[in-house]
Every structure is written in C-alpha cells, then in structure tokens.
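Much of the work behind modern protein science is quiet bookkeeping, done one molecule at a time. The fold becomes a row of whole numbers, each drawn from a learned catalogue of backbone shapes. The protein below has been through that process, and both of its lines are reproduced in full.
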Amino acid sequence: MLLEGKKVIIMGIRNKWSIAWGAAKSAYENGAEVIFTYGSMENKEKIEQLISEMPGTKAYDCDASSDESIAKCLEKIKQNHGSVDGILHSIAHANTEDLRNDFIFTSREGFAHASDVSAYSLVAISRIAKEKNMLNENASIVALTYFGSEKAVEGYNVMGVAKAALEASIRYLARDLGKDHIRINAISAGPIKTLSAKGIKDFGSILDLVEQRAPLHKNVTTKEVGDTVSFLFSNMSSAITGEVIHVDNGFSIVGV
C-alpha cells in the first residue's frame, strides 16, 4: 500500500463531510497510522464517535491560534506515537460578517484573525514540529487552499487573502524545510459542500458554474482530494515541494 508503515497527522478534523476526513480515509486505506487533531471549539464526543470508524486512531485537541496549545498537542502526539511522516493542515477560519459583507468592510481584527488561524498556523505548526524533532526524514506537510487565493471569488473575501498568504508561506517554508529533506505543498481543491463552505454566500451557484465550465464538467469529491493528499504524503512525490496543486477538474485553467 502507498503509505504502509507511515504515520500521518490530520489537523482540523470537523465532520465526515470535510476534506480532512476524505484525506484521513485515503491515508488509512493506504496503510498509514492516522492521528487526528481537532479545534478547541469542536465537540470532543462527536469527534471521538467519528474517528471510531477507523479502529486504532486517536484525536487530540489543538487551538491553532495558540503556539502553546500547538506545542502541547504535538508533544502529546510525539509521546504517544513517536515521530511522524506527514501532516495535513486543514485549518481555516474567518468571521462570518467578513465573509458575508463586501471585502472593503473587513475589520482590522477580522483580517488579523483570518490570517492568523488560516495562514500563520501553518508556519507555527511547521516550526514547532521541527523544533520537537518529530518529523522523520523525507516527511511531507500538506495544506489546503482554494482558487479564491488567485482570483476574486464572490463571497470568499478575507479568506482569499488569508489563503494567498498561506500559499506564499508554503514557498518560503519549502526553502527552510528542504534543508532537512522535508517537503511542503498545498492542494487547491475545487468547491466541495463542507461545513466551512456554508459561510460563503451563494455557494451553490459556484458548484453549478464548475459543472458547466470545468473541462471534466463535474465537481471534485473529498475522496479525490484525499487521494491527492496521500500521493503527496507518499514517496512517489519525493521531488515535489513548494507547489500548489489544483485538484478541481481543470476549472482553474479555464478563461472567460
């Protein structure tokens, strides 16, 4: 199997409709030991019930906006599981009003919050994991992004700016982590009906547009994105780092 003998952390699990869950299922089915983290605002009992579908997996709470919380979480994982071969960063948040209102009305606090949780958390997680020496040689870090980082997408607003910062961070992190033979990449997934997507105004119309305009005339699934995460975790992608890979049925290549 593609990930036989590897241990991976899926950070930011929320529910069975999330991309993180699709990635976890793919990694698990490909032989990896899967470890979960969930946000401090999530329901622990629901998370535990969800991951029970994957026998032997464990979940740890982690507040991605706090370096102290990240450090405690990763330390617990290292104590219980040892060093790991992969980390998926599936963490993002913006205030509802900053997604529903025009971007020009984004508050200073809202801008900082979205950037901190959605982008800086990747920098903090990468640094702390490296400081704790819990990333095996040839380990792979993967983050999730979206086309709204490249183009102005109606309703994506401040999250698009945060994702642009995330993508730029990946390029700089690739240079630093590469010194230790650690890779980092992002997947720009097409729109998927997730809990987070509900915060985007008129999200259904985006799904319809992708079906009409994408070269493959369909929307992407969590399984398809998850399988790409597994590929990036695997040794088959050993020469890929600092990239943003679009998994969107080709929608991002289409012009007017």
User: Anything to note?
Assistant: The mean pLDDT is 94. The domain at 7-247 is CATH 3.40.50.720 (Rossmann fold). The CA atoms of residues 6 and 32 lie 5 Å apart. The first strand starts at residue 7 and ends at 11.
